[in-house]
Amino acid sequence: SAQEQPPQICVVGSGPAGFYTAQHLLKHHAQARVDIYEKQLVPFGLVRFGVAPDHPEVKNVTHTFTQTARSDRCAFHGNVVVGRDVTVPELREAYHAVVLSYGAEDHRALGIPGEELPGVFSARAFVGWYNGLPENRELAPDLSCDTAMILGHGNVALDVARILLTPPEQLEELREMVQLPGTRPMLDPADFLGLQDRLKEMPRPRKRLTELLLRTATEKPEREEAARRAEASRAWGLRFLRSPQQVLPSPDGQRVAGIRLAVTRLEGVGETAWAVPTGDTEDLPCGLVLSSVGYKSRPIDPSVPFDPKLGVIPNTEGRVVDVPGLYCSGWVKRGPTGVIATTMTDSFLTSQALLQDLEAGLLPAGPRPGHAAIEALLSSRGVRPISFSDWEKLDATEVSRGQRTGKPREKLLDPQEMLRLLGR
Ligand code: FAD
């Protein structure tokens, strides 16, 4: 039975969801073998290509992932696009179970006129560009304008704002935006009226953040801080109760020149309040628009159910609905929200569900060929995967190139160069 044979398990995607799922499976089953397939040449998903460069301590989770990848029951196969180079049914045939952990690679569009103008980018592409994602390395955003408008107030929007405001030489350190050198906040105290009274109802993290904003917007700064702000050459602000209506073109229609925002007001109370337009609008000039209103998963393969509205794979506790032996974890399971710690908890739960099913005899019995079968398929299709030790060579090159300029690493951006360095 499958229980006597070492279970062969396949994970699709090598971001936090993929690695935490693999880690839990290896820890809680002494024989399980886990193969991780990844479409990029390099591992770690958004830890490498999303998390901002001034959050190096967050990127340290890769040490744990590296330990997992070095296990002799785990293998990393980069440069394999599941859904194109190999299909999900082929993986299901070769393995006892398949876990889809392929994240949310698309962005939500604004759906407003002018969105296609040069100078408008999704935060997803912009983050990919400053983080060295090969597909975004030619993005070349024109940063010569005076004003950038970021649509959205989420974590990604704040990352993008901080990166735009921070001089490159400071990106090695962690600084929070309020104290960012050379910058001053522009917050309208009117936006914060009445918030003081509501602080006590707020959950702790939001309370701390709101208190900080409230202090910054309404308190008179001390002398030293006032002098710092007066000298600042860059400024940032948050605007509330505005909804993007149209990207305004330059007179020649060739690029972005501003944005029209609908003024909104809240109806209802508390967490369920929603914004409705008042009928007023406000036009603001800017040379760059970054829409940061969320990431979105894509369907991977016609054989896998997909909920286009929620942008997730329909599942119960990580078991893909109606497809025995198929599981999901991370952003593709619960949508593109939550930090790495949330993704870890969620991935452990998926792994637990899989191990329970294995224990209950719900996975296919008898031996499965695992990677041997997939390797043959890939080779017949001219696909040459990248192993974890290949990645460790590329990693060493990046680190040594970075050392020359005092950076933690100088990322390789060109897949062709990566392959050359590996002697391909
Ligand atoms: P991902 O990390 O996206 O991993 C998915 C992997 O699947 C990728 O490697 C992708 O290449 C691969 N893949 C996709 N399609 C295929 C395919 N067809 N075949 C094979 N492989 C495929 N969290 C924090 O805790 N701290 C932070 O500072 C932080 N900053 C963030 C900044 C940004 C800009 C973003 C977007 C997120 C940030 N997060 C942060 C959240 C964190 O990145 C996510 O919680 C986490 O990465 C989600 O993990 P995942 O594995 O589901 O997705």
Automatic annotation (TrEMBL):
Catalytic reactions on record: 2 reduced [adrenodoxin] + NADP(+) + H(+) = 2 oxidized [adrenodoxin] + NADPH
Protein's UniProt keywords contain Isomerase: no
EC number(s) stated in the UniProt entry for this protein: 1.18.1.6
UniProt xrefs under InterPro entries: FAD/NAD-binding_dom, Ferredox_Rdtase, Ferredox_Rdtase_adrenod
Molecular function via GO: oxidoreductase activity
GO cellular component terms, A-Z: mitochondrion
Subcellular location: Mitochondrion
Catalytic EC class: oxidoreductase
Listed Gene3D superfamilies: NAD(P)-binding Rossmann-like Domain
Residues holding NADP(+): 153-156, 228-229, 338
Cofactors demanded by this protein: FAD
Residues involved in FAD binding: 17, 38, 46, 82, 331, 338-340
Record keyword Mitochondrion present: yes
Keyword list, A-Z: FAD, Flavoprotein, Mitochondrion, NADP, Oxidoreductase
Domain FAD/NAD(P)-binding per the UniProt entry, residue ranges: 8-164
Family: Belongs to the ferredoxin--NADP reductase type 1 family.
PANTHER family membership: GLUTAMATE SYNTHASE 1 [NADH], CHLOROPLASTIC-LIKE
Record's protein name: NADPH:adrenodoxin oxidoreductase, mitochondrial
Naturally occurring in which organism (per UniProt): Pipistrellus kuhlii
